[in-house]
Every structure is written in C-alpha cells, then in structure tokens.
Amino acid sequence: MTAPATAPVLEVEGVTLRFKGVTAINGATFTVGERELFAIIGPNGAGKTSVFNVLSGVYRPQEGSVRFRGEDILGQRPNKIAAKGMARTFQNIELFENLTVVDNLMLGRAHQVKYGMLAAMGWVGPARRSELADRAAVEEIVDFLELESYRRFPVGLLPYGVQKRVELGRALAMEPQLLLLDEPVAGMNLEETEDMARFIIDIRDELGLSILMVEHDMGLVMDLADRIMVVDFGVPITTGTPAQVQRDPNVIKAYLGEDHDTGGRRKKQTADEGTTS
Amino acid sequence: MTAVENQPSTGGGEPAPAKGRRPLGRPMLYTAYGQDMALLNTGAKKVAVAVLLVVGLLLPFVLEDDLLRLLATGAVLAIGAIGLNLVTGYAGQVSLGHAFFLGIGAYTAAVVSGDPEDDQLYGLGITFLPVWLIAGGLAAAAVGFVVAPLASRLRGLYLAIVTLGLVFLGTHVWNEWDAVTGGIGVGRPAADPVLFGVDLSRRTEVFSADQQLYLLMTALLVVFALLGRNIARSAIGRSFAAVRDRDIAAEVTGVDVRKVKRRAFVISGFYAGCAGALLYSITGYLDPSSFGLLVSVQFVAMVLIGGVSTISGSIMGAFFIALLPRLTRELPEYLPFLSSSATETPNVFQVETLLYGLLIVAFLLLEPRGLFGLWVRIRNYWKAWPFSY
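ok -> structure tokens follow
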C-alpha cells in the first residue's frame, strides 16, 4: 500500500452504516491524498454508493468519522459539505432536466452566490456582477468539457453520454477540492468511455483535484486509479495499487465466488477478465 | 440553435464586459455574456415588448370603461398568478392556499387605508397607495415565511392538502373577525387607491375612474412582472427550479433547500398580498366570502392554462381567466337552454366553473406548456416559415 505523500484530503475511519438489519457499510477506512485518484470497486450491492451518500451528507452513519481537510464533516447538511469543496456526480443522472446546460452548470456555483432576493429582483450591482462572473466561470467548464454545441438545450433532451458530461461539469463548476464520481462511464459506449477517461485524467492532472471514483468498468479503473479499495457486502476487503488488488486472492473470491469442488467444471479466471462486463 | 460566440478569453475567468457592439442582422451573435443574459436578448423581443407597451397605453382611449375595468382586474390577477407561479411553477411547491394570502393582503391594505374615525372597523387612515400596497404584500410575505417550514416536511399532494387547509382557516377568520372584515354579508370598504392626493377610483377632469385604474394596474403589472422575471433568471430562480426538479441533487450541489422553499413562499406571499390589496380597490368593496377555495382554483387554472414556470404565461393565463366570464355571459344568446340568472339551472355561472376544470384538463392533456406553449409553437412556425420543418 503506497501512502500519499502529503496530508490526506479525505480521511474515512471505521464508518458503519446500518438500515434496520442490513449493514450497508461495515467499518470502511481509507484516505484520499492530494491529487490522488482513489477508486472503490466491488460487486453490486457492496455499499459503494452508500459510501458516497455518507460522504456527501445524504446518509448519516451510526459509527465512524469522516474528516475532510482535517475537519469532521459528519452530521453536516449536504449543502454545507458541498460548500466546503466536495462535489459529486450520481450513478443515475440527477440533473435539473428542465433547465439548460448553462443553467445546470450555473447551479453548481449556487453555494457561492452572495446576493439576496432584493438584488436579484433589481438585477443591479452585485447580482448582475455575480451572474456575469459565474457565467464566465461556467463557460470555462463548457470549454473544458466540450459542451459548446449543447449550451442552450434543456438537459432532458440531450443524449445520455452528454448528460453524464453535464453532470461532471456541474460538479466541476462547484470548484471542489475533492470530486466524487459515481460510475462516470456506466452505460456508455466505447467512445464515450474513452472521452470520459480523458476528462477524468485532465481533471486530476490539469485541474489538480483529488478524485474518489466508484466504477464497474475494470479496464478503466485499473488504467486510471492510483489506489483501489475493494468492498464486498459493506466490508472492505483490501486496499492497494491496481496491480496489488488484481493479485489479491480475497478479491478474486469476492468477485467470482469460492472455488468449491465442482469437479473441475469451473475454470480459474483472473479478476480482471471475469469482471469486465 | 446557434452557438453563442465566446468572448476572446482574457484568462483568469474575468467577467466579460456587459455591453458590447452587436453586428446588425445577426440576432443570435453575442459578443459579451451580458448581451446573452439580457432580459430582451433579441431584437424581436425588444420590438414585441415595445409594441405591447404602446398598445397597452393606447387601449384606454379606445375601449369602453367596463372592458377597461375587466383588463385592470386581469392585470391584478396576473400579479397574483406570477406569485403562484413562482412558488408552484418555479419552485414546485404546490400551493392551494393562494386565496388565503390574497385575503391577508387585501385586509391588511384595507386596515392601513381604512377610516380611523370609524368605530366599527379598524383603520389607520394611510391612503397613500405604495404604503398600503407594500404593507399588504409584507403581511402576506410574513405569513408565507411562517407557512414555509411545512414545505420542508411535506411535498406534492400532502403539501397541497395542508395549504388547502389554510384557505378554510382563513375563511373562518374573515367571517368571524368583524372589526377587520366587517363580518358576513356586511363587508368593508377596500383600500383607496390614492396617489399623490388623487383618488384614482374617482373620475378626474382628464380620465374616467376605469381609465385611471387600468393605467395604474397595468403599470404595476409591468413592474411586478419585471421583478418576477429578474428573480426567475437569477441564481434564486435557478435554485427554485433545482429544488423542483431534483431536491436531493440540489442539496448536494450546494443549494440550501429549506432556505429556497422559504424564499419561494415569502416571495409568492408578497405577490399574492399585493394582488389582494389591489384587486378590491378596483371595486372598492371587500366581502369576507371573497377568499374561498374557488379563488385558489382560479389561480391554479391561470398558472396551468397560462404556462407553468413562465412569467409571460402567468400573465396570459390571468387575462384569459379574467375575460372568460365576459365570454360565457354571451353564451345564452347562442345556447338558449342556458340561463343568465343564477337561480335557474343550467346557468352561465355553472358553465364558467365547469370551464375552469375542463380547460385545466384540456391544457394538461394537449399542451402542458399552456398558452405560453401555444405561443412557442406559433413562434417556431414563423421562425422556419416558409419551410415547415
């Protein structure tokens, strides 16, 4: 396990989340370092998205602590956490579908809007300046994510792959320090996946963000991630570099099941082959 | 759709200059964000608004007084409809309690403007219009502030039912609180529209009362519509829409959902209060039974028929509903089995009530974007004319 060189951006310790009898997360512990791309993988229902919901304040875990830039953020409201610099995308696109692409991105900057209702009514002074500055900032993201031709479309009318990109854009518009990506390439074709991979690399290398990613596309995860945590039924199995994780026998067991004596009918597979679906 | 031209990047995310020279004949070419985000961002919109304003100014010299009075009522209803559209259309918080807010505005204004000598009714004797107008608006906004936490707990149908309860609560209070409302069947004089010493509800040497009221209400509508439009296009309007479309995503994006709902109810209350204050200063008389469920339903009809989450749609819907009774009154001439008397059935008043429901259903099924949607269709047709695709 390679520890990040600088102080971690995010420290999660012993987080346990239960819904009645079901334990969705059982003692998740990990850190995300500066400019690190940390991936969480695991079979369906392993609790990956629940981790995201805990981090962004949607769920409140029963045990554990979450420290963001050294500050305990557990129990704070989602909008407060967002304002501290944590942005996320959703597995199933959660865009404001009646609004245009530009308006969706502008909403990413909602937490830094300072002007009130009266200024908005008059559209003068601070309101006008703030809107123009936000628009200029949003256009940088439109440019970065190559959304120029979709600016004025209501996002509900856009193709799936573009919607995913708009959602990434909305998260970037928040100017976060940590970006949570929940299955950024789910349901995408090969070209869209490659585009998204390129954007993710650019975000880490050019914008210098720390990224926490949940993804089922093993090829993408192995290529992009600096470190990977594997979870199964809410329990973290192992954490390490892509190469370490691929060799871990526990990981292979979690994904492919145990090798019972089945009379040699089942062939041994590597985790890599077996889970790219 | 034409892509917006980028301001040549000066780096560092500096806001582009708000104004800039725009080449003629290229309506969709913008050279600054300020142009693109302007209220009237195309030449056609500027011309259309100018024409509308001129027509609006000329109407009082062309139309009969009773029609002007109807249009003045329509303008006031439009202010109320914008208020309902802000909370229900933009912010997605279904409110059936609009009549209650209207009542608060109307009675606050009536009390502020009322005769202080009267020992039956409360009155402060401040007849200056802006004072009682804003007092009525603020009183209703304050109630909106108190009611808003309900919306943080409830949503959709449940919120609709609870806000419906407000109407019945209000009706009871209006019926019983004689010192403010005058009581059932008695009523009280509404607020006097006095502006700089001139009582606009009485004819002067130049204008008739209805001409004055029409001009006053239209001017106020223009102001309120402009303010509403500014709210809608600002970060506040966007956060309303975000809460309506996806409240959890909105919160994770940094929108304070409770604050947004509170703001929506406050601003909607303010608009409703102002509309209530103005509405009865046209007739000059205020009856406690004027704020029942039907009024709320009428406002919902205005929003749905006009166009959900559009300011111009609210205005169209309000004028449509305001002029509808006038049209149904004409019906007995063509349909002899209809009576124009309220005591016989079937009569035109029943037809009118029926029409609200029918029109809501018809619009929801056929054109959910309402009259505004019809307008968009017409506009798009002419945009491409003579090509049909």
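Chain A has two domains: 1-85+176-277, 96-175.
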